[in-house]
Amino acid sequence: MTNELAPAAIADLLALMARLRDRETGCPWDIEQTFETIAPYTIEEAYEVADAVERGDMAAFKDELGDLLFQVVFQARISQEAGGFDFADVVRAIHDKMVRRHPHVFDTQPKEVDSSAQKQTWENLKAKERGNARVLDGIPLNLPALTRAEKLQKRAARVGFDWGAARPILAKVAEEASELVEAMDQGSAPEKLADELGDLLFVVTNLARHLGVDPETALRGTNAKFERRFSQIEDALAQSGRTPADASLDEMEALWIDAKSRERA
């Protein structure tokens, strides 16, 4: 679709949303929805966009972007019906924000900057927009925990509360792991174990940040690797008419090592 056709396509989508929410002729499910009930779907659609990107499935990518856009249209429609902002307000807001945060492009005297300088400018402008807010204010509570931990650490690092490099953090990882082992040996309550495990995950996230690795991406990669190798265990057992439930742990571990070796080869 060309840019010339985009306004008409968006108008069609907005009209469709209005029809779905029509109290007389619309869809009962769509009519019942609120900001709160739709929000989980919005989060889910964002993850499905990321999944399509990782799989390199451009057809699915297009569809998932559409699903995510529909979530924006849905929330804007609910607001409009309540006398609040509408879809056009959402578009204007993001347009104005992008202009404001790219002064090197849109100022009367634009200048050349590299991506690192632009990133710093972006963060400085965000901090200025927050005004006198506390350093850690504004980081969404419903982000995935690893992502939120990384954002908290980045925000604190901007005011100097940070490790200087990745290697010293390894000692902290070992320290937190030993504290978890101690809590386990003492038969600590689940709440204590969760606290110690949380500390360990937090410092591992910090290590990932200093290594330049996104912890969510790293864990997704490991999840995919585990799924792939476990499937190979299932396939190997299926050749003898068995399932993992029929095999011993030692046997599955041997098959796991074999799958791992074949992948590396």
Description of the structure:
The protein is an all-alpha fold and 265 residues long. It has three domains: 3-100, Helix Hairpins, CATH 1.10.287.1080; 133-213, MazG-like (Helix Hairpins, Orthogonal Bundle), CATH 1.10.287.1080; 217-264, no CATH class. 72% of the residues lie in helices and 0% in strands. It has twelve helices and no strands. The protein has helices at residues 6-20, 28-32, 35-55, 58-81, 87-100, 103-106, 115-130, 145-157, 167-185, 190-210, 215-238, 249-264. The longest helix is centred in the first third of the chain and has 24 residues, at 58-81. It is globular.
Labels describing this entry:
single chain; globular; Helix Hairpins; 265 residues; 0% strand; 3 domains
Radius of gyration using CA atoms only: 25 Å
What name does the CATH topology of the largest domain carry?
Helix Hairpins
Termini separation comes to 45 Å
Strand content: under 5%
Sheet with the most strands, sense and barrel status: none
What is the level-2 CATH architecture name of the largest domain? Orthogonal Bundle
Mean pLDDT: 91
Backbone structural class: mainly alpha
What is the count of β-strands?
A: 0
Uncertain spans, ≥5 residues at pLDDT below 50? none
What proportion of the residues is helical, as a percent range?
over 70%
Order of SSEs? HHHHHHHHHHHH
Give the C-level CATH assignment of the largest domain.
Answer: Mainly Alpha
- Please work out how many helical segments DSSP would assign: 12
Sum up the overall morphology in one term.
Answer: globular
CATH superfamily heading of the largest domain: MazG-like
